[in-house]
Every structure is written in structure tokens, then in C-alpha cells.
Amino acid sequence: MPSKNFSTVSGVKLPKIPLSDISFEHLTAHHDILSFSCTHQELTDYLTVDALKNQDAHVAVTYLAVYEGECVGYFSLLNDSIIKKDIDPEDDKDWYNHSYYPAVKIARFATHRECEERDVGRAMLTAVRSIAIAVSTYSGCCVLTVDAKPDAELFYERFGFHRNLKTKKKNTIPMYRCNIF
């Protein structure tokens, strides 16, 4: 962000940003995203270099979280599925006879470094859940999935995500949330 400092003013921590003050916009070429910066450079690079390309290729769709006219976060979504064996038996629906559950995957998820700890992530997860519910009216979807960075695992756990039972990845932690409705 060019000159705004959203997290502190003279070293004083700023209050949470209310969900009602954040709007969500489908990424377009007209958005100014070059000032976006988060703690993981690859997530910053994804937004500024790859997000529109992936969107044009119909691989993932990116939404911006906008506060006071600035991009304070973003997330990208794509279709996914999760193997029944990878979820906790308590989350399994006995009547569902298929091997996979249909899902929406959070492919990328990042908050601007100056807006961390201000509830932007909570607002974005609320938007993701709303989008998944809307998708479920057109195509089967009953699970959210994410490959969380190790430092984000606790964040996702606070919002009802669980580790997949079988994990083979080393750099991320596959997680899911069944109760999206």
C-alpha cells in the first residue's frame, strides 16, 4: 500500500476492520494490485503475476478484499474433491456411497502485511463460505479444502478446519472443513 499503514499508527495497534467495511471484488485487469504485499513473497507474486492468467485459463478465480479503496487481501478458488478416507469418520456421511466428496478449494489466501491481525482473514473466510454455498446451488459442493502453510494451520483450525488424515505433502498441510452450511 503506497502511503497507508493499516495496522499501526505511531506504534499503536489499530482496531479490527468490520466485515461490513470490506467489499469483495472479482479480480480484473483494472485493479491496482502492484502495491499488495504479504509475508509470503510467493503469495504476493501469485496475485501480481499469475492470478489473472489463471483466471483467464479458467483454472482459478481470484477475489480481492477491498477496504478504503485498497486491496487488503485476496483469495483464489478452484474446484476440488477430497477422498472419504482422508476425513475423520465423524465427518463422514454414512449414506453417501461415493469415494470422494465434492469441494471448493482455497488455492491462495493472503492478507496484506499491514492488515494482519485486523480480521481481514476472517472476513475473507466468510466470503469463501458464502461463495461455496452459492456454488452448491449449481454444482455439488459440501466441503472446503486448503493446503495450509504451516504458519497458517492454527488460523484455519480456529475456523473449523481439520487436518486430512493422510498427509503426504511436506511444504503445506492439507486441511478440510465439512460443515459449510
Keywords:
Aminopeptidase, alpha+beta, 181 residues, 9 strands, 7-stranded mixed beta sheet, two-stranded antiparallel ribbon
Describe the model.
- The chain is built from three helices and nine strands, in the order E-E-E-H-E-E-E-H-E-H-E-E.
- Strands 3-4-5-6-7-9-8 form a seven-stranded mixed β-sheet, sandwiched between helices. A two-stranded antiparallel sheet has the order 1-2.
- It has one domain: Aminopeptidase (3-Layer(aba) Sandwich), CATH 3.40.630.30.
- The protein is globular and about 50 Å long.
Instruction: Count structural domains.
Output: 1
In CATH, what is the homologous superfamily? Gcn5-related N-acetyltransferase (GNAT)
Reported for the largest beta sheet, the result is: 7 strands, mixed
Q: Please state the overall shape, judged from the principal axes of the Cα atoms.
A: globular
**End-to-end distance:** 35 Å
Mean pLDDT, rounded to whole units? Answer: 91
Query: Could you tell me the radius of gyration in angstroms?
Result: 17 Å
Share of helix among residues? 10-25%
Can you count the beta strands?
A: 9
By CATH reckoning, the class would read: Alpha Beta
Q: Which range does the strand content fall in?
A: 25-35%
Strand and helix order: EEEHEEEHEHEE
Q: Order of strands across the biggest sheet?
A: 3-4-5-6-7-9-8
Derived from helix and strand composition plus strand pairing, the structural class reads alpha+beta
Helix count? 3
Q: Return residue spans where pLDDT drops below 50 for at least 5 consecutive residues.
A: none
